Amino acid sequence: MKFGETFTEYLHGDQEWFLDKCSHVEYKQLKKVLKSCRKSCKEAPASSSCGSESNHEEFCQCESCPLCDQKFFSELIKEASEIAGCFSSRVRHLLHLHISNGLQRYMLRLRHCFTNDKELMAQQSRMLIEYVTMNAIAIRKILKKYDKVHSSINGRNFRTKMRAEHIELLQSPWLIELGAFYINFNGTESGDLSNQFSCDLGSDRPVMTLTISDSLKLEYSLTCAICLDTVFNSYALSCGHLFCKACACSAASVMIFEGLKAVDPETRCPVCREEGVYANSVRMVELDLLLKNRCKEYWRERLHDERADGFDRPVDTQTFIVTVSVLVAISLSLFLGLKGDPVPCEKCAGNGGTKCVFCNDGKMKKETGLVDCRVCKGAGMVLCKKCAGSGYSRRL
Predict the structure, then answer these.
(1) Domain termination residue (choose one: 310, 327, 357)
(2) How far is residue 233's CA from residue 134's CA, in Å, rounded to a whole number?
(3) Spatial separation of the C-alpha atoms in residues 235 and 46, rounded to whole Å
(4) Which member of 1, 198, 209, 345 lies 3.0 to 4.6 Å from 393 by CB, making a disulfide possible if both were Cys?
């Protein structure tokens, strides 16, 4: 059976209710675009830019075909973006249900008493993996057909563009999270997806393997490119590279408590040197849970080292100043709050004094002229002796 028929059967199969809410590759329409291009090239004159008349019988020989490029690549990039967005949002929602906390955890446990959510979540994970793999194969097939029809490498270049725009489906960090989720959820690699997802954590180079077909097998390295060890408290940048949180923060020159969201947008990935990849980094919770359960001794050692390193790390000047300032502000507010609000003076009623009756605006007449009053000393007011002119005698 050809892939086009297989893909059509998949879209209208048992999972049609699930796929109705998701975007997918319009494989048939894209094939029609390529067929119309081939037909137009056959009817074109021999002097056209598509090549000689003998070449029109099979393929279009133009490296850039305006007829295809206007519809083909624009539609494909739109569909790939929608599929990547739909896949990431669905996986994020599924993982949120699996690793919940607080009140939501108790609500889910109460719900489990009445419904079998475990079987439903396993079914959703299988459908999501099949959804992303089928669409990824469809994109690869149609791009390969484009290169064959046009005798070009534009389809291959388009895949490179998809990686640069972070919409390559099989390179998504959410696919790694979904594989780790399925293994964690079942407690073992045996199951309906045992022939697809597997992980080898005992070797020097730990990997997670996704087997799509006999000819297509993808390996995802679980080694941090900075410390060259198995990732711990792992994060995936939007370019797809995995790092330990401490290593990623160190490479981006930020403190661990600040997190990767505080990284300068112009900071580059330590591996591919791409800018702006820290803002949309993904916390690999399921992958950490998998490593914690499978490599318990290693996880304890790394946790101990991270804590020891955190206590031994010298505090920088800026952090010290900010911490001291916050503590002083809190202490001052507590001190003033305990003393209470100021009370107006009983003698002067809060005025701070009374008008001097011995002078006029602080001046007295004398034989030599106007001089400052000796009582108010030119202030025009006799200050209250109880509050010393402040208007407040005491505090509660």
Answers:
(1) 310
(2) 31
(3) 56
(4) 345
Q: What is the pLDDT of residues 127-171, one digit of tens each?
A: 888 888 888 888 888 888 888 887 778 888 888 888 877 788 888
Q: Is 150 exposed, middle or buried (0-12, 13-18, 19+ CB in 10 A)?
A: buried
Angle at the Cα of 28 from the Cα atoms of 6 and 80, rounded to 5 degrees: 90
pTM of the complete model: 0.66
Task: Give dist(CA 185, CA 117) in Å, integer.
Answer: 12
Q: What's the domain count of the chain?
A: 3
CA 265 to chain centre: 13
Does residue 323 lie in a domain region?
no
For residue 370, being part of any structural domain is answered with: yes
- Supply the CATH number for residue 244's domain: 3.30.40.10
Residues of the chain with pLDDT under 70: 1, 38-70, 98-118, 186-195, 214, 309-316, 318, 336-341, 394-396
The HSE-up count of residue 232 (CA atoms within 13 Å, CB side) is: 20
User: Would you say 387 and 348 are in contact if contact means Cβ atoms under 8 Å apart?
Assistant: yes
Rounded Cα–Cα distance for residues 147 and 141 (Å): 10
Cα angle value 248/285/97 (rounded, 5°) = 150
Q: Count Cβ neighbours within 10 Å for each residue of 67-76 and write b for 16 or more, e otherwise.
A: bbbebbbeeb
Phi and psi at residue 316, to the nearest 5°? -75, 165
